[in-house]
Amino acid sequence: MNDDAIFQRLGADREVLTVSQLNARARSLLEDVFPRLWVEGELSNLSRPSSGHMYFTLKDDKAQVRCALFRQHAQRVRMDLRDGQLVRARGKVSLYEGRGDYQMILDSLEPAGDGALRQAFEALKAKLQAEGLFATERKRTLPSHPRRIGVVTSPSGAAVRDIISVFQRRAPFVELVIVPTPVQGRDAAPQIVRALQLADRAGFDALIMARGGGSLEDLWPFNEEVVVRALAACQTPTVCAVGHETDVSISDFAADMRAPTPSAAAELLSPDQRTMLLQVERAHRQLQHCMRERLKREQTCIDSLRKRLRHPGERLAQQAQRLDDLELRLKRAQTHRFVQLEQRLERVSARLQARHPGQRLALLRQKLDPLVARLPRAMTQQLVQTRRQFDGLAQTLHLVSPLATLGRGYSILLDQRGQAVRSRDDVRIGQSLEARLSDGRLTLRVENDPDAPHTLPLLD
User: Fold this and answer.
1) Does the N terminus or the C terminus of the chain have fewer Cβ atoms within 10 A?
2) Using one digit for the tens of pLDDT, what is the confidence trace for 304-340?
3) pLDDT band at 460 (very low <50, low <70, confident <90, very high)
4) What is the enclosing helix (H) or strand (E) of 230?
5) In this predicted model, what pLDDT tens digit does every residue of 428-449 receive, in sequence order?
6) Is the Cα torsion angle 193, 197, 200, 203 positive or negative in sign?
């Protein structure tokens, strides 16, 4: 039913409601209008009936409101409630129709100072997470079979007894060393840091940092920044087991592994000796089975090899027989080869005899004798013919020779360079020339040019 419908119906004329109807509408109106909210006040009139529910009143100096915390939510409250305690409650506003009482139905209850601690918790967690202090790649793997484990906790707390009990039951052979430190109070954080540093240098296979459950204030040392950083700086694998399963501390995020309880931390690091014995027995049976199977296979192989194995004398007899066979084959091959070589030698000798140089020389001598007789006649005929050709060529050469022309009374004029003078334009007056005759040479000088025009003197 929405708000508008409720107010419309309340405004209807002449509508008469029963008390139950009035209280039902009032409860519905309160629950619809008010969201889930937090209320802080002083606890009073606390009542715990056998049903497990809790009823009380929250008040301040001016007003009060009745509250109900039902069993399923009351079981999660770990603090000891008492009258006069300042608490912070979360729930919804409602109305108890039976009495018409206005009340709050709660689902969470915590001390009033817890809210500031929660804010500090979330702020530090966000800061360290941004630095990568909780990164998965920083986590180390826990040893599967540790021999020596350090336990950083209070030696008088229940956590150490739970851890010792689990190891005695599951792995009594593992050495446990208690590194004592306070786990609660203002001075607990620096002492926890010193205990962690001391344990980290002691060479343990793993470390357990543990304490039992408590309120947020009780567990606060494990939310201190110095403790978280010291835990993250440990080189030894660490398990954080602080509080109960629902408790969460910042150290849980910095450790290599978080355990919900100290007993669970011991379970993580203690190999169960019964399980180990079962594994050893199972491995022993498997080993025996494998050995039997291996022996069977090896025996089968030996039997097979024994059947294939022969006596050395038999092997030597076979080799001797094979050697005799090879010797006979070698002799036959040698004889056959000798016959082949003799036949080839005869063929080569016959071919060589057929090509003997004496026969070749006799044939050539028969051809040479007629040639020797024909050579002088051929040479004489060739010389006569060549002389006739030479005489004809000499006569032809003489006819066209300049010397023949000179013999007929002509001469050849040559200038200083030995070039023939072909025209009168090639000479000048006073130039020396050489005349070549058939029987020698003459040196001449040009006196004048008879064909050139000249002027006679008038007075002569």
Assistant:
1) C
2) 888 777 777 777 888 888 888 898 899 999 999 999 9
3) very low
4) helix 225-233
5) 888 888 888 877 888 888 887 7
6) negative
Cβ(89)–Cβ(114) under 8 Å?
Answer: no
Q: Which residue type, as a one-letter code, is found at position 397?
A: L
The three-state secondary structure class of 405 is helix
Cβ-defined contacts of 73-76 (< 8 Å, 24+): 73/106, 73/107, 73/108, 73/109, 76/108, 76/246
How many CB atoms neighbour CB 216 within 10 A?
21
Lowest mean pLDDT among 26-35, 304-313, 404-413: 404-413
Q: In the sheet that 206-211 helps form, which strands lie side by side, from edge to edge?
A: 175-180, 148-153, 206-211, 238-242, 257-258
**Which pLDDT does position 278 carry in this prediction?**
81
Letter for the amino acid at 253?
F
Show the tokens assigned to 273. 């000796």
The span from the CA of 23 to the CA of 101, in Å, is 9
Nearest to 441 by CA among 409, 412, 418, 417: 412
- Going by C-alpha positions, the residue among 60, 70, 82 that lies closest to residue 108 is 70
- Report pLDDT for 1: 46
Is the model more confident about 284 or about 438?
Answer: 284
Spell out the residues 6+ positions from residue 241 whose beta carbon is closer than 8 angstroms to its own. 159, 208, 209, 210, 211, 258, 259, 260, 261, 262, 264, 265
3-state secondary structure of 435: strand
Predicted pLDDT at 9:
54
The whole-angstrom separation of Cα 249 and Cα 320 is 92
| Residue carrying the six token digits 């194995």 | 309
Domains and CATH numbers, the chain: 3-112 (2.40.50.140), 119-271 (3.40.50.261), 405-445 (no CATH)
pTM: 0.44
CB distance 449 to 427 below 8 Å? no
Among candidate residues 52, 241, 61, 95, the one with its CA nearest the CA of residue 162: 241
- Average of pLDDT values for 75-92? 82
What 3-state class would DSSP assign to 147? coil
